[in-house]
Amino acid sequence: xxxxxxxxxxxxxxxxxxxxxxxxxxxxxxxxxxxxxxxxxxxxxxxxxxxxxxxxxxxxxxxxxxxxxxxxxxxxxxxxxxxxxxxxxxxxxxxxxxxxxxxxxxxxxxxxxxxxxxxxxxxxxxxxxxxxxxxxxxxxxxxxxxxxxxxxxxxxxxxxxxxxxxxxxxxxxxxxxxxxxxxxxxxxxxxxxxxxxxxxxxxxxxxxxxxxxxxxxxxxxxxxxxxxxxxxxxxxxxxxxxxxxxxxxxxxxxxxxxxxxxxxxxxxxxxxxxxxxxxxxxxxxxxxxxxxxxxxxxxxxxxxxxxxxxxxxxxxxxxxxxxxxxxxxxxxxxxxxxx
Length: 339
Description:
The chain is α/β, with parallel strands linked by helices. Helix content is 36%, strand content 27%. The protein has helices spanning 49-52, 76-90, 113-125, 136-144, 184-199, 205-215, 248-254, 256-271, 275-284, 298-306, 319-329, and strands at 7-14, 18-23, 26-32, 35-38, 44-47, 62-65, 68-69, 72-73, 100-107, 128-135, 154-159, 164-170, 173-180, 229-234, 241-246, 286-289, 310-312. A five-stranded mixed sheet has the order 3-2-1-9-10, sandwiched between helices. A five-stranded mixed sheet has the order 13-12-11-16-17, sandwiched between helices. Strands 5-4-6 form a three-stranded antiparallel sheet. A hairpin with a 3-residue loop joins strand 1 and strand 2 (18-23). Helix 2 packs across helix 3, helix 4 crosses helix 11 (319-329) and helix 5 (184-199) packs across helix 6 (205-215). It starts with 6 loop residues before the first strand and ends in a 10-residue tail after the last helix. The model has no long low-confidence stretch (mean pLDDT 89).
């Protein structure tokens, strides 16, 4: 069958931190959005997890690049090389003919025309013959299982790596939205800065990410608190090794300002919501998606502060990717897809 398949269909969640590809209703690629390039001839050395392992450890002659920043393409050529490498992972079977590639790629709802063109061009240069795009909050809503074409309001807050997408969806369209370039990466930077300032400890991006996963919290008091996480590293002043136990209370204070910015954006989107849809949201609640939804106490904090029930999606990390897969199966039906 593989020899004569002329059209290959894939759905891609092109994220700042991770990129996910769905093919035949299955997640076939889930890799960090990193590409390693040889300096001498600009050839791709590694893509995804293998390239991510090299970050901060590159030998001379190789550099690692994260082509997306704040949810949008920052390095056009590297993005094209990364997409091409990820698409190759979908099927390693040898084919007699190179199949025509139909793609649905999700983009931030606040993308400019230039940013949309950059995604389309990168996808086309990587082999896409028929490229459609979908806004991330719409994809998240589809992935959660909501009826986006129903005449009622549903609110999605998708906290990714580079951007937070907040949207009210009704009748197959985005009625009001807020897209801010503050999300998981900003929280990681807060932790890095805090560890250096308070503990005099040098902490890399990967270690700060581990701190966030192990003891990250949006509340200073949790019912089921995690154990303190021990961070090992070099003292900034003496370069001598040191170990520092970090608690969730400490991390909740250091990420407070960034959480408040996300909270303000959610309130801003609610302010711009028509009254009829606002009452629907009060009844249905607000859905949290993306990796940021997994921060301990975040849903409770938002629920208590705003007075509306916030629910974490069943599989928040893959909600956008799954929704992009649903859009791929309904290309002829969904009018909100961007060609």
